[in-house]
Amino acid sequence: MTPAISVVIVDDEPLAREKLRRLFEADRGFEVVGEAGDGEGAIRVIAATRPMLVCLDIRLPGLSGLDVLRRADPRPAAVIFTTAYDQFAVSAFELAAVDYLLKPFSRDRFLAAVERARVWIAAANGDPASDRLREVTGAGYLTRLFVRERGMVRPLRTSKVQHLEANDDYVTVHAEGARFDMEITMATLEGRLDPACFLRIHRRFIINMDHVTSIAPIDGSRFEVKMRDGTVLGVSRQRSRILRERGC
To answer: Which of 2, 136, 162, 209 has the most neighbouring CB atoms within 10 Å?
Structure first.
């Protein structure tokens, strides 16, 4: 029998913690091992219980939930942020949160989040069944990015993303004829995108294959891809071999 996933709940509102506890207790696959109502308490509980999953409010007395995650040792395998404020969504994503529940959230929305967490944790533990579970449920992969636009946070569906470009310690998202910068590494983002759609073609570029109009050889060992908006991107020699193996 698979061991239950250990959970810590962090929220400064007792009623909110009680609601989350009831939701988790309804699923035998999870076990609540600790709770905290402030940032410093959260760090202590995480260190003492070493949970696999933390449900973490963002606005807390003392340290914020974002600060808690940055300082947590050990860092939990999965984190679901819960908050009434959507302006923190980008920061939560940049810290590789599994999901971001905006209060008040429904039971169905909660179940979707914990299913992503379940798959995320299975993958972190090297469970080979997690790959098949991702195929069936679609869980674990991002369906939207939270990007900043004109001082606001905008949810952007990953299906709208044409390609991603690495620029030092941030990534530029090219979508719908616009550019959005995200403070995240390409490696972190690549691991959360569905490989059935997204392909790394160069250390600088990840493309959405659904936005590719043509793939053409440029010499004996390399390809270039043309995107729907006319952008032409070079494919590295190593990645060109992968495209060849796919029959290009």
So the answer is: 162
